[in-house]
Structure formats: C-alpha cells, structure tokens
Amino acid sequence: MREGYSRATTKRMAEVAGISVGSLYQYFPSKGAIAAALLRRHRNRMIEALSRPLPDARAVSLEVYVRDLVGTAFGVLGLDPALHRLLIENVWRSSLRTEMTGFEESLEDAIAEKLRGREDVCIADPPLTAFIIVRAVMAILHATVVDRPDYARDGRLVSETTQMIVGYLERGPATQ
C-alpha cells in the first residue's frame, strides 16, 4: 500500500510480498480485508504502547499524570506514521472503522477509573469526562498525522494538549 490505498491492488500486493495472488486470496479475500488486518495490527501496537504503566494518577500531580498520558498517546505517532496516515485517510473513515470498536471505550474506562477520587479535579461524570478527553486527543492525533505531520516532533504539541486537558479537568463541570 506504499502507492496509496486507492491505487493498491491485490495483484501488486502479492508481487511485493513475493507470493502468488492465489496464495494472498487464501488469507485475505479482498484489499479491504488486508486493510482491516493492518488496522488491527496497528491498533494492537497502539494499545500496547498505551498500556505501558503510567504513574498512579493519585501519586503524581494532575499535570504530570496528564503529560505522561498525552506524551504516551502522541508517542504512538512514531510507531509507523505513514501507515497511521494511510489507515486514517482510507480505513478509519470507512466501513472498516468497525474494526476499532472497543478501542476508544477501553481507554475511556481506564481514564475514568484513574480520575475517580482525585481531589484536584472537578468532574461530575468521570465516564463523560474520559470520553471527551480520549476523543479530543484522538482528534488531535489524527489531525497531526493527516494535516500537520511536522507537529508530531514538536514538543509543544504535548505541552499545549496537556494544558488544554488540565484546564478542562480543573475548571469543573459546565452548568446546564
């Protein structure tokens, strides 16, 4: 898929892999199935990176905890930026998106659990707060990969995102 998803063909993929098209079809019935397998592999690498132990949320300052979390999430950009971009542009925004079901939710659950009981955050609904944080960080990650890859190596991205999240957590819930 180095030539781009739209130009990739199963015949060309088989050639690059050094196998026959028939052999490729034994494992993957379509180009979409190959993309889904790549997305699963990439998702698993992201989960592995994000599952590394972070400091206990209650043992460090809110800013240190959030910076570690955001830094780890943005560190995922370095795993394979070209693949990340291809998957976002051609797979993530397609029906194959269902391959990621549960990924964000598992992150949300983990973050909600870490935020519960912290005295330095003003949140009324930890699951909603975690949803907003995960989706905001994912949007920034995706926009960085697709629109501004130069920001991936700019430490200010982590700092600014950390400041945004800490400010959100410290200000308290919005009034209705």
Q: Helix proportion of residues, in percent?
A: 55-70%
- Count of extended strands: 0
Strand content bin: under 5%
Topology pattern, helix = H, strand = E: HHHHHHHH
Largest sheet: none
The CATH architecture term is Orthogonal Bundle
**Helix and strand composition category:** mainly alpha
Global mean pLDDT: 79
Low-confidence stretches are none
Radius of gyration: 19 Å
Word description of this protein:
The chain has 176 residues and is mostly helical. The protein has a single domain, classed as Tetracycline Repressor, domain 2 (Orthogonal Bundle). The chain has eight helices and no strands. It has helices at residues 10-17, 21-27, 31-50, 62-75, 81-92, 103-115, 126-147, 155-171. The longest helix is centred in the C-terminal third of the chain and has 22 residues, at 126-147. It is elongated. The model has no long low-confidence stretch (mean pLDDT 79).
Jot down its keywords:
Tetracycline Repressor, domain 2, single chain, 176 residues
How are the elements arranged and paired?
Blueprint: H1 10-17, H2 21-27, H3 31-50, H4 62-75, H5 81-92, H6 103-115, H7 126-147, H8 155-171
Helix pairs in contact: 1-2, 3-5, 4-8, 6-7
Summarize the structure.
The chain is mostly helical. The chain is built from 8 helices and no strands. The protein has one domain: Orthogonal Bundle (Tetracycline Repressor, domain 2).
